[in-house]
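Handoff note, outgoing to incoming analyst
You'll be picking up this chain. Sequence as last confirmed:
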Amino acid sequence: MFPVLPKDCQIVWVTTRGASFWAVNYKITVQSLGEETEQSYFMKVFLHNRGREMAEAEYESTKAWYNVVPDNVANPIGWGELASKPGRWFLLLEFRDMTDRMPLVSDFVTVVAAGHQAPVSPTGKFGFHLTTFAGDQANDNRWCDTWEEWFTRAMRNTMEAELRVHGPHPELQALSEKILTRVIPRLLRPMETHGRTIRPSLLHGDLWHGNVGVEHGTGAPIIYDCGSFFGHNEFDFSCWRAARYQTNRTHVEAYFRIADKTEPVEDFDDRNALYAA
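Most recent structure output, in case you need it:
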């Protein structure tokens, strides 16, 4: 946790900037005493019962991306507990004024590729140093030696969560077992055997169009709501497959004009379908 707002400042204006099922967003404008210049911040207040974890996770995820592409990610200022509402947690970022439209395809994939290619996993493994979230769904980020291990665990957790919510379902359970024991090894293991390796890439973790915008004035792509971990770079395309999203095959093809597909390349579309499941 951090001291966040500048000392000796007064709040000039607070306005809401949208909400989700688990958080409310605000724009806070402050002015330092004795000065005319104002400074604005973006604050997310988490309503979820895991708000403390979510605030810290998004701070650390955003910081990881800001360190790589600072022009395209809001600077994370800090996170902590609201003094006026103990038990309620917040994240504070610099305010980046933006629209919710998608950036140009080439601009967007250039930012994504830069994030994937630049940082190195501190352990050389797959995972992250704390639990992160895609929306309100937690990523079990304990370090794994192989991508197959990390993804199998994540898929199993998703399947178990589905059964907890909806109850036993024999057909789904049988299908889930086949995916875990047959499909995942078939599609992911070849990338890490026969002399092949995967470089753990810094992933956004929830890269759908609702977490992307365009900055007013500069036109720069801005990405936010990061739920990061080190994984297979193609995993970030999982949201680009479904027709309901504003990303599609055009974005994938543009990305691969910058970066190479993972071998075996003939499995790419099947891997993409698995990640999008």
